[in-house]
Automatic annotation (TrEMBL):
Domain of life: Bacteria
Recorded coiled-coil stretches: 51-81
Protein name: Pilus assembly protein PilO
Keywords assigned: Coiled coil, Membrane, Transmembrane, Transmembrane helix
InterPro entries: PilO, Transl_elong_EF1B/ribsomal_bS6
Pfam families found in the cross-reference section: PilO
């Protein structure tokens, strides 16, 4: 081989090696840096978007916080309508309320009977308590008592059946009703 040929081999070999070093350096050193930069930029964009969403939620929560007194009042009302009861099922308290309501409307509330709670199929945390009671008194007063029982007193009850009769000027109404309790305890709030 001639010197010129050897010089050409070294020249092409050197150029090829230089090109390989540049291309390899790009793929091994520079390319990953661009990929890392793109990843960081995408993560930053995602974080900015998430931050925007969270700030919007924070604003909504701040608006809701202004109504916290109303929410507490609603919760207290709901707790009275659907009390928590594990052992007594709140029946003694409810029967006392019925007696007080009877005194208020000048009717005789008697003949209490309560059955064991039965879990509702659609709402497993709520149980229904079948209750029977008899009310004696004037028709108008009994009507006022039943209206108060069904619509205004705090405990949620559902009248399932009613039978009435009259004897010696007094009306008697036998009610079969259902009261409800929950097995889920919520924190008590003061309204």
């Amino acid at each position: 081989m001639t010197t010129r040929r050897i010089d050409q081999l070294w020249l092409f070999g050197g150029l090829t090696l230089a090109i390989l070093l540049v291309v390899g350096g790009y793929f091994l050193l520079i390319g990953p840096q661009y990929t890392a930069r793109d990843t960081v930029q995408n993560d930053t964009a995602d974080t900015v978007l998430q931050l925007s969403k969270e700030q919007k939620k924070l604003g909504e929560l701040k608006d809701q916080l202004k109504n916290v007194a109303e929410y507490k009042e609603t919760l207290a009302t709901a707790q009275k309508a659907l009390p928590y009861g594990e052992t007594t099922n709140q029946i003694p308290e409810f029967l006392k309320e019925l007696q007080a309501l009877g005194v208020k409307y000048d009717v005789n509330v008697s003949g209490y009977g309560a059955s064991a709670p039965q879990e509702l199929k659609d709402t497993p945390t709520v149980s229904e308590l079948p209750i029977t009671l008899n009310i004696e008194g004037d028709v108008d007063k009994i009507t006022s008592f039943v209206k108060q029982l069904q619509t205004e007193q705090p405990r949620s009850v559902l009248i399932k059946s009613a039978n009435y009769g009259a004897s010696t000027g007094q009306w008697t109404l036998s009610l079969s009703l259902t009261a409800f309790i929950t097995s889920t305890q919520t924190r008590t709030v003061s309204s």
